[in-house]
């Protein structure tokens, strides 16, 4: 498809659906700026779609894209809330500067994305170890797998986390 027609198709979908999408998103977020951010990201993803002229139900397509973006937003907000709760319980002398806070939040989000990309058994073993504090033998017994498999899962998860923060 010629670039001009491609952009025209995206433009038509944007003009016909932007206000509708933004108002629909307002039911799911706490602020106008969040709704606008999600709507903007939705249309950015639409612009990356290879054939916008072939979308038969633009609102359904946009709703699906927006839902995926909302889920990521909610996950990030949950992470930020958990981090803020942890900070409230820390002594003031240990508190982070705004810059350190932003860097740490980005690292936490990168690790969260890395963990989310892992296969379920690997993710489960990693979370049982890091969040629940189980030993490798306890994880093996809990999951019904061998100790060697737990070690492989942990190695894979740790490598994934390290690679996401160094990239």
Keywords:
167 residues, mainly alpha, Arc Repressor Mutant, subunit A, 2 domains, 7 helices, 78% helix
What does this structure look like?
With about 170 residues, this protein is mainly α. The protein has two domains: about 70 residues, no CATH class; about 70 residues, Arc Repressor Mutant, subunit A (Orthogonal Bundle). Helices cover about 80% and strands about 0% of the residues. It is built from seven helices and no strands. Helix 2 crosses helix 3, helix 5 packs across helix 6 and helix 6 crosses helix 7. The radius of gyration is 21 Å and the shape is extended. The two termini are about 35 Å apart.
Q: What is the topological layout?
A:
Layout: H1 3-26, H2 32-48, H3 58-88, H4 98-116, H5 120-130, H6 136-143, H7 147-166
Helix pairs in contact: 1-2, 1-3, 2-3, 4-7, 5-6, 5-7, 6-7
Please sum up the structure shown.
With about 170 residues, the protein is mainly α.
Give the termini separation.
35 Å
Strand content: under 5%
* Radius of gyration, CA atoms, in whole angstroms: 21 Å
Which outline best applies? extended
How many structurally independent domains?
Answer: 2
Q: How can the largest sheet be summarized?
A: none
What proportion of the residues is helical, as a percent range? over 70%
Mean pLDDT figure: 85
Uncertain runs: none
What is the number of helices? 7
């Amino acid at each position: 498809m010629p670039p001009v027609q491609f952009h025209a198709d995206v433009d038509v979908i944007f003009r016909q659906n932007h206000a509708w999408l933004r108002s629909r998103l307002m039911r799911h977020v706490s602020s106008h700026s969040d709704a606008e951010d999600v709507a903007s990201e939705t249309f950015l993803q639409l612009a990356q779609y290879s054939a916008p002229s072939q979308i038969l139900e633009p609102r359904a397509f946009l709703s699906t894209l927006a839902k995926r973006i909302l889920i990521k937003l909610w996950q990030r907000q949950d992470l930020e809330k958990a981090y803020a709760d942890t900070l409230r319980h820390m002594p003031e002398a240990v508190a982070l500067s705004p810059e350190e806070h932003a860097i740490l939040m980005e690292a936490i989000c990168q690790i969260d994305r890395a963990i989310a990309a892992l296969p379920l058994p690997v993710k489960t073993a990693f979370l049982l170890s890091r969040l629940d504090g189980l030993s490798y033998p306890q994880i093996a017994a809990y999951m019904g797998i061998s100790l060697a498999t737990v070690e492989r899962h942990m190695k894979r998860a740790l490598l994934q986390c390290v690679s996401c923060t160094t990239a």
